[in-house]
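Quick one, tokens below:
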């Protein structure tokens, strides 16, 4: 299963928007529960969220249940929240590289935020 950065973004924003910060039953149109569970697992692996590994032998893919975002998860939410900044970053990626690592995407979003604030 390929990592889907759009799903990662949607999940982080949904978890942050949850009144308690706890969103164990995430659902998104166009994504299976296996995809969402796997990306929850990736969120934990990347240090963006805390939760519990829910993988069993019957699972289609590694699965996790998110209990909260980490500081880094909230930082990513702030950088990725603005739809125009997100689209601009994704456009730059497609135009210049085609693909991108998550760390470079975070740096690009941060650079776009700094540019919007006229920071060096």
């Amino acid at each position: 299963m390929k990592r889907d950065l759009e799903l990662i973004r949607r999940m982080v924003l949904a978890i942050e928007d949850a009144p308690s910060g706890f969103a164990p039953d995430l659902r998104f149109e166009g994504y299976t529960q296996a995809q969402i569970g796997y990306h929850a697992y990736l969120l934990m692996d990347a240090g963006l969220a805390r939760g519990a590994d829910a993988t069993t032998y019957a699972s289609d893919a590694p699965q996790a249940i998110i209990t909260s975002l980490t500081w880094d998860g909230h930082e990513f939410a702030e950088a990725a929240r603005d739809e125009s900044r997100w689209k601009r970053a994704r456009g730059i990626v497609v135009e210049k590289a085609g693909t991108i690592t998550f760390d470079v995407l975070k740096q690009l979003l941060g650079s776009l935020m700094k540019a919007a604030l006229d920071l060096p």
